[in-house]
Specification:
This protein is mainly alpha-helical. The chain has one domain (about 10-145). It is built from eight helices and no strands. It has helices at about 5-10, 20-25, 40-50, 55-60, 80-95, 105-110, 115-120, 125-145. α4 runs antiparallel to α8. The protein is globular.
Amino acid sequence: MTLVTVLALSVATPCTLTPEALCERVSQVRLIPFKGLGTDEAYLALMNAGEAVVPCLIEKIIDTTPMPDPRMAPKYPGTVVGDIAFFILLEITGTELEGLLPETVRESFRVNGVYAYFDYVANSDNRVQLQQRCRDWWRQRKSRGERNGED
């Protein structure tokens, strides 16, 4: 058995990881595929876990650890783990980005696109506010029994 084989066998597979352990992989996402282009193991593991990882993704929203922007475009140089956790949460739940933002940010979003989001979360208090909005939204969604694409 080669060293590579031993290492491959010793790595936990996505199906054996808890949602919390999967959420720790947000910082490892290097590519968020756009229109089916490209693949990324960490991203796919999170997407395959589905709604089970949503609560821990919400908790990650306030994580300001810098990381490369894995989105195909437009790239943002100040991307942090919390941003990617939020974007993956949106993908998993089929929710539009502006749907979870305050009205003033939604208005700016119409003009500035995703940069309105980045301007908003540049203030750490707003990042905490976004996290709370997501917690409340998720709690309401679960209490109504909604699933991906139903709201």
